[in-house]
Amino acid sequence: MKANTTPKATPVTKAAIKAAAARYLKIVEWSDEDKCFVGRCPGLFLGGCDGTDEAKVYAELCELVEWHVAEVLAGRKPLPEPTAGREYSGKFVVRVPPELHQKAALKALVRGESLNQFVTEALAHA
C-alpha cells in the first residue's frame, strides 16, 4: 500500500493575513441617511459595519477585512486585486448618449472651456 503523499496545507499566519488586509482600501464615512458612520472595503466584499464612533467603526472594519482575507486564504482562493495604494492614470472613457455629449460640448463651448475642462469641473463638484 502506498503512503499518502499529498502535502498538508500550511496554515496562513496572522502576519500574512495582516499584510494582505493592509492592501485593501478601508473607507469610513458619515451617512446622513443612517445617522451613523459606515465602514466599507470596496473591492473586497459588499456590506460592512456601522456605528456612532468613527474610530470604533474603523477598528471593526479592519477586523472584518482581516477575517475576510483569512477566510479567502484558508479556502486557497485568490484574493481580488488590492485597492490601496493604487496608481491612477487620470484617463478614463465614459460612454454617454449622443444627446448628452452634445449638451456637454455646447455648455463647455459657451463657457469658453474644453469639454475636458467642463467635465473635470463637473466631476469635482459631484
Verbal overview:
The chain is 42% helix and 11% strand. The chain contains 4 helices and 3 strands; from the N terminus they run αβββααα. A 3-stranded antiparallel beta sheet has the order 1-2-3, with helices on one face. A hairpin with a 4-residue loop joins β1 and β2. The chain is elongated and about 65 Å long. The N and C termini lie far apart (69 Å). The mean pLDDT is 91.
Write the layout of secondary structure elements.
Layout lengths: L13 H8 L5 E5 L4 E5 L7 E4 L2 H21 L23 H14 L3 H10 L2
Antiparallel strand pairs: 1-2, 2-3
Helix pairs in contact: 1-2, 3-4
| Derived structural class | alpha+beta
Runs in which pLDDT lies below 50 for 5 or more consecutive residues are: none
Mean pLDDT over the residues:
91
What is the approximate shape? elongated
Q: Span between N and C termini? A: 69 Å
Order of H and E elements: HEEEHHH
**In total, how many beta strands?**
3
- Percent helix: 40-55%
Domain module count: 2
Number of helices: 4
Radius of gyration: 22 Å
Strand order of the largest sheet: 1-2-3
Strand percent estimate:
5-15%
What's this, in brief?
It contains four helices and three strands.
Descriptive key words:
alpha+beta; 3 strands; 126 residues; elongated; 4 helices
